[in-house]
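Appendix B, Record 12. Input sequence as logged:
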Amino acid sequence: MQKLNKIRIRRIILLFALLLSVQVRAQQDRPNILWITSEDNSPFLGCYGDAFATTPTLDKLASDGFRYTNAYANCPVCAPARNTIITGVYAASNGNEQMRSTYPKSESVIPYPELLRKAGYYCTNNVKTDYNFAGDYNSMWDECSRTAHWKNSPEGKPFFAIFNLLTTHESQLFPYTPDAELRHKPEDVVLPPHHPDTEEMRHDWAQYYDKIEDMDAQVGDLLKELEESGLADNTIVFYYADHGGVLARSKRYVFETGTWVPFIVRIPQKYKQYFPAERPGDAVDRNISFVDLAPTLLSIIGAEKPDYMQGNAFLGKAVEPEPEYVHLTKGRMDERIDMSRAVRDKKYRYIRNYMPFRIYLQHLAYLFNARSARSWEDYYLAGNCNDLQSIAFQTKPVEELYDTDNDPNELYNLADDPAYKEVLERMRKENVRWMKEIRDVALIPETEYMERAGEGSMYDYMRSETCPFDELLAAAELATQSGNGAIPDYIELLKNEDSALRYWGVTGLLIHIENAKCALPALRAAVDEDATATAVLIGETLYRLGEKELAEKIFLRILNDENRTMMERNWVLNSVDAVDFRTPAIEKWIKDFYDSKSEELTGFLIFSNYDFSMCKIILERWSVI
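Logged structural output:
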């Protein structure tokens, strides 16, 4: 009997060892994944047809891999773009679209590194996080630091590693490089038609191309290191930029210049079953965007995609159908409040502007550190810009439609052209469908997030029974309709119990201000509105209708209320700047606030304190400082 038991034990041990061996081999058979990201650059690469670019490394990577020609950042700025990437959920759905904010993430939405680690991957991030939600970013990674590296992964364990290259970031334009030191010469720059031909504009374009060349060399160093480690044949390499950029009217805008990104994937022969086209070197015209990245990672490693993820896997074992449309969003960019949604198919881009009373190129403190941006504004104010260059300083139409094949710079709006009526209606309908599907948080003004969600997330609030979502979406569409508007309906919305519905009521009046004079009694009755965003737009509408004393009363009531937040003051200051509302009392408040903060706020703190930043912008325009 004892002999029989020993035999059984040996068999169990052998079986266990066999299973363990199979598991280890399965782990080793799964690909390593290396992501290399660059900052703030559109496809200004030789492999994308840019003859001015010097990018031998990325051109070689494209010839060895697959170059995606329709790849997009869903948000044209870093933190919301990364929020979408890390969760597989649109930032506009998470409630994390507003730039540089720390609103909670839903506990039901799990960042993909946690899912990869659960599946047996060693996950490293070097080093940028910037995920735009509250929480401990480092804890989701095995390593997250300037020294994080795939080399630290345990033997036999597959790795997922990210290296974030900052070389092409917008800030790299701010230190001036003399023309004589530039490798790309300003006189050789071919300017896009919307940029004026100023010395500063040519210089910054040339300096930017130098930075792209430097970034390309950094990618080469990482690929060389991978090759020398002996792991290249087991590693799928991704390269992409975190959004478009970087000169004015690219980053932060839902145009092609802000959202179209270079995206290259190199897949070793060992994993040729994942090839997205027939052979390496081929271009892939599939629509992809950042919301697709987390599902794609899970598909590659053979893990199940969670139900909450909103993208489609485009590589791996569980490739999903190609989406017909890509969706793009814009919310608050630092101190500047705005809201736009865009829909892109392979020919057209549709844009819906929910705050068309704001100009395109608002003077944003960080952006206007660039000499090129300042020169454009100066050129316009001097009356030197032509019609195309002047569009940037004009208010927006409610709807925009561009034929990107024939108008790649998206300068000729076709929304009012009867020949494109069918295209316009199709894409308008798709925008509404998508906003409803993802429960778009931007239907609620940012100043109300904390009040509505409490300690929870806006993602969860928008899916709760207390959120009047369908009414909000209908009101937003009603407010931003073209033509003469629906003034009686807007007035009725002003009386609604829900402050966000009142917000869309006054938004409709402000958009259709030329027909809104009959709403003056309702607006006068609403001067004590407490919800900040709604109150501010009531004040701005009153101002534009000639009721300047009432408008000033609303603005000063909010500015002088010590219980109001930075973001609430920022709403007032955005309106003050938009209508150039300069009264002695308003100027005094702005100057006093600026003086009280100016000594303690320096460097980057200026740009992250939005009320102070707006005060500085306004006072400089008024030549007070």
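The first helix runs from residue 2 to 29.
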